[in-house]
Amino acid sequence: MGEEETVQQNIVHSGIQSKADKSPVTVADYGSQILVSLALMMEVSGPFSLVAEEDSEELRKDGAEEILEEITDLVNETLVDDGSYSMSFSKEGILSAIDNGKSEGGPTGQHWVLDPIDGTKGFVRGDQYAIALALLDEGKVVLGVLACPNLPLSSISNPNGSSSGDRIGALFSATIGCGAEVESLDGSPPQKISVCSIDNPVNASFFESYESAHSMHDLTSSIAEKLGVQAPPVRIDSQAKYGALARGDGAIYLRFPHKGYREKIWDHAAGSIVVTEAGGIVTDAAGNNLDFSQGRFLDLDTGIIATNTQLMPSLLKAVQDAIKEKNHAASLL
Ligand SMILES: Nc1ncnc2c1ncn2[C@@H]1O[C@H](COP(=O)(O)OS(=O)(=O)O)[C@@H](OP(=O)(O)O)[C@H]1O
Ligand SMILES: [Mg+2]
Ligand SMILES: [Mg+2]
Ligand SMILES: [Mg+2]
């Protein structure tokens, strides 16, 4: 059994914390943030700016001693097992390492952007999740890495991995102007990937959030109907959807959070460059490119859509028609 799987199984049996916004966080989210931030500190020369999802607030509260101890043990054991860096963390060191990720980002300079576990709900369920790291330079994503430990290496149509000859675990990466690649988590040679070339929506399938609380499944179903998509939605957690889209496992990604939700840059930075470097397009519901230069949040119009160049014009029209219809129906209530 791989180390990621052991951590995943242990966590399902240990405490899952709830943050102020009621979303879940586990020792793995904190542990991953500390390890990636440590790797950046060791590998990037000089000081760096990190915009990351987690902070230490919950861990500094009374009653959090046990989980802080669990995180400290997990991180120190992982460092020993891995052997890349000979160091260990105190509890205070753990808290301050998590808070290395408090940068506000912005339009100038370079900023690393990290979602230490994207799709925490999927992780806890034993389904898809991703570790997503990107680099912003002058407000633009220039590098993205997306590790998906539970995703089949070749295609989601091989869900049982080894029984179908496909390995489990995929690492997507993309550098601006250089294309996108996938490799196994244990280091197979990288393979170039590209989005599918489907140009008739009748043959297209679409990805969306597993959680209906994260994206309006009724709206996406009306968009799919307008386009003439026949296949049922493919619901998987996290930015694994961007990775799967980038290598042509499906043709379209639709994401429409409920009213009032503000998207965070770490939920889309790595995934979006993997898709665009694989030849796809990622926009908001108005057809605008995503703007990563405005700080920790993405300010955008209503939703996020991604597909290939052939399907984008008809997808955008279907999205705008479906939104108009939904708004009209709401105005009649
Ligand atoms: N209410 C609401 N609406 C929309 N989005 C939300 C909401 N709450 C959380 N999130 C963010 O969704 C991230 C998980 O991504 P997905 O929606 O693709 O995953 S899922 O398929 O629904 O599990 C998830 O990322 P992680 O927190 O890293 O898991 C959140 O940033
Ligand atoms: Mg979260
Ligand atoms: Mg996330
Ligand atoms: Mg997360």
Automatic annotation (TrEMBL):
Q: Which family does it belong to?
A: Belongs to the inositol monophosphatase superfamily.
Annotated membrane-spanning segments are none
CDD domains referenced in this protein's UniProt entry, alphabetically = PAP_phosphatase
Question: So where does Mg(2+) get bound?
Answer: E53, D115, I117, D118, D267
> What is the protein named?
3'(2'),5'-bisphosphate nucleotidase
Against InterPro entries, the record matches this protein to:
DPNP (IPR006239), Inositol_monoP_metal-BS (IPR020583), Inositol_monoP_superfamily (IPR051090), Inositol_monophosphatase-like (IPR000760), Inositol_monophosphatase_CS (IPR020550)
Cofactor(s) it depends on:
Mg(2+)
Q: Does the keyword Protease apply?
A: no
Going by the UniProt record, its keywords in alphabetical order are:
Hydrolase, Magnesium, Metal-binding
Name the Enzyme Commission number(s) assigned to this protein. 3.1.3.7
UniProt-recorded Gene Ontology molecular function terms? 3'(2'),5'-bisphosphate nucleotidase activity; metal ion binding
Organism per entry: Urochloa decumbens
* Catalytic activity from the UniProt record: 3'-phosphoadenylyl sulfate + H2O = adenosine 5'-phosphosulfate + phosphate; adenosine 3',5'-bisphosphate + H2O = AMP + phosphate; adenosine 2',5'-bisphosphate + H2O = AMP + phosphate
The alphabetized list of GO BP terms reads:
inositol phosphate metabolic process
Upper taxonomic lineage:
Eukaryota, Viridiplantae, Streptophyta, Embryophyta, Tracheophyta
